[in-house]
Amino acid sequence: MVDWALFSRTRTELGASFVRILGYFQEDGEKAVARIEDGMHRRDATALILPAHTLKTEARQFGAEPIGALAEKIEFAGRRAVENRLFPDEILPAVVQLRRLFDETMALFAAEMNPLAQRRPAFGRAGTNQEFGRI
């Protein structure tokens, strides 16, 4: 569900700003999902495009590829609908799935960011810092 290597690389690159920017992603992502749901409810294809595009790009920066792929599907369906003047009713399951996927991914991010969580060992390392000094 999350490319943890990409997540870690982004975390390293952003340094001290990472937590703040991840918080922005969570806030913006929540709004984007709500705007997509609202656009679907109102049958407004134009309203699907920008929030789906934004969510796609931001999710992929944090390694949340399934969200990115689903948002891309919604974005492209919205663009086709605007061009063809036919609302994309067939993407309703994807819009419903997007909410669940976003919430699950945010829960994974929160668990990973919890300072009390036990971390996965890095490649080539054995044990965790909880093992240090033990016989």
Question: What attributes does this structure have?
Answer:
single chain, mainly alpha, Four Helix Bundle (Hemerythrin (Met), subunit A), 70% helix, elongated, phosphoprotein, HPT_dom_sf, Hpt domain-containing protein
How would you characterize the overall build of this protein?
Helix content is 70%, strand content 0%. With 135 residues, it is mainly α. It has one domain (16-111): Four Helix Bundle (Hemerythrin (Met), subunit A) (Up-down Bundle), CATH 1.20.120. The longest helix has 25 residues, at 18-42. It is elongated, with a radius of gyration of 18 Å. The model has no long low-confidence stretch (mean pLDDT 89).
